[in-house]
Amino acid sequence: EGGASTLMPIGRLIRHFRHVIDTGYDVTLATQVTYPLTFDRGRAQRERVALARIGDPFIDALSEYVNWDDRGVVAAMWRYRPTARYSKPAEVAFHFEFVVECPTEEAVEVLPVGVLGAASAIGRQADWLFPPFTISVWLDQDLEPVVAESSKAIVLEEGYSNKLGIDGGRDFNLNSERWAALDATFPRSDWSRWVERARATAEEVVRVTPGWLSSIADRLETARRAEVDRAAQAASRLAFLTGAHKEQEAVRAAVDAAVVAALLRGVEDPSLRLDSVSAVFLANWHPFSDVDE
Fold first, then answer.
1. Per residue in 234-277, pLDDT tens?
2. Which pLDDT tens digit goes with each residue over 223-246?
3. Cα distances (Å, whole numbers) of residue 26 to 10, 15, 23, 29, 115
4. DSSP class of residue 274?
5. pLDDT at residue 291, rounded to an integer
6. What are phi and psi for residue 98, nearest 5 degrees?
7. Structural element, H or E, at residue 66
8. FRET pair for 53, CA 20 to 30 Å: which of 77, 86, 135, 148?
9. 5 vs 40: CA distance, rounded Å
10. Rounded to two decimals, what is the model's pTM?
C-alpha cells in the first residue's frame, strides 16, 4: 500500500510467501498474514506454533527473497564536504562486502541421483560445518586499501544523511538523474571498467587479510573435529547392526563420508560471494541543482 510501513508490495509478498500465508483467517488481499511462528523453542512448545529455524518454509522463503531483491546491493553517493580538501573532481572510494562460505557443488555431485532436497540439505550442512561470515574492504580511487581508522576511513564510514550538516555539507544519493550530471567527469563506459577492476582487486585484498586467514583456520579446525566425531558415531551405529540393515547403513555412511570430505575441501578453499558494492565520491563541491532526495 506504500507509505513508510513496508518496502514490499502486497502482490510481491503473496508471490514469494504464498505457501506460508495462513488461509484460515478471513482476510482481504491487503491484510494477508503468515502462520504464527517464534524463534523461542519453549514458546513454540507452549503455544503450539511453528519454530522459526533453518528449513522452516517461512525462513527459507525469506532467505530466497533477500537474495532475489537487489535493493541495497548496489549504491553510490556524492559526499559533499565544502570545508574539506579533496582532489577535483572528486576522490572516489569503493566499498565491497563479501560473504565467505563453503562451496557445495562438489558435495552435491557425490550424492546418488534423484535425492530430493539434496542441494538444500547440503547447503545447511555446509553452513553448519563452516558458518558463513562477512568481510569487507574499502579501496581508494587508485585501488589501494583505505587504511583503517584513517581520516578518510572515518569520513567514509559515516552514515548517509541528506540533511545539511554544520559545515553545510550533505550527501546526495546518485540516482539516475544525478548520474547524468556526472557523465562529463565520470563517463559511464569508463566507470563500468573501473568498477570491474576494483572488484577483482578487492577479492585479492580480502584473501590475504588477517581476518580471512584466521577465520578460515578456526573453522577448518572445528570442521575437522566435527568430522572425526561424525565418523565415530557412524562406526558405532554399524557395530550394532546386522544383515540388510547393516548394509544399508554402510552405504549411507559411505555417502555421508564422501559428502563431508567434499565439504572439507570447500572449507579449505571457501568461496567469496559479493553481497554488496557501493561507491562514495568525496568532494568539496557538487554539480546538482536539486536539494530534494
1. 888 888 888 888 888 888 888 888 888 999 999 999 999 999 99
2. 899 888 888 888 888 888 888 888
3. 17, 19, 7, 10, 39
4. E
5. 53
6. -110, 150
7. helix 57-68
8. 135
9. 26
10. 0.76
Residue keyed to cell 580480502: 206
107/12 Cα distance (integer angstroms): 33
Dist. CA 233–CA 245, nearest whole Å: 16
pLDDT of residue 77: 93
State the Cα–Cα distance between residues 110 and 218, nearest whole angstrom.
Answer: 26
Element (H, E) at 121: helix 118-129
- What is the residue whose three cell numbers read 541421483? 113
Cα 29 to Cα 172: distance, rounded to the nearest angstrom: 37
In sequence order, which residues have a C-beta less than 8 Å from that of residue 64 and are 6 or more positions away? 16
Tell me how far apart the alpha carbons of residues 80 and 82 are, in angstroms, rounded to a whole number: 6
DSSP classification of residue 160: P
- State yes or no: cis peptide before 89, omega within 30 of 0: yes
CB atoms within 10 A of CB 172: 22
Residue type at position 3:
G
Residue type, 230: R
- The helix (H) or strand (E) run that includes residue 225 is helix 210-239
Terminus-to-terminus CA distance in the chain, angstroms? Answer: 21
Q: Which residues contact 146 (CB under 8 A, 6 or more apart)?
A: 93, 138, 139, 140, 152, 153, 156
Give me the amino acid identity at 139. L
Q: Residue 78 in 3-state DSSP?
A: strand
Query: How many CA atoms, within 13 angstroms, populate the side-chain half-sphere of residue 6?
Result: 9
In the chain, beta strands by DSSP E: 37-38, 50-51, 74-80, 91-101, 133-140, 170-173, 271-283
Q: How far apart are CA 1 and CA 224, in angstroms?
A: 50
Q: Is 272 helix (H, G, I), strand (E, B) or coil?
A: strand
What is the spatial distance between Cα 150 and Cα 140, in angstroms, rounded to a whole number? 12
Q: Which residues of the chain have pLDDT under 70?
A: 1-8, 22-33, 114-117, 290-293
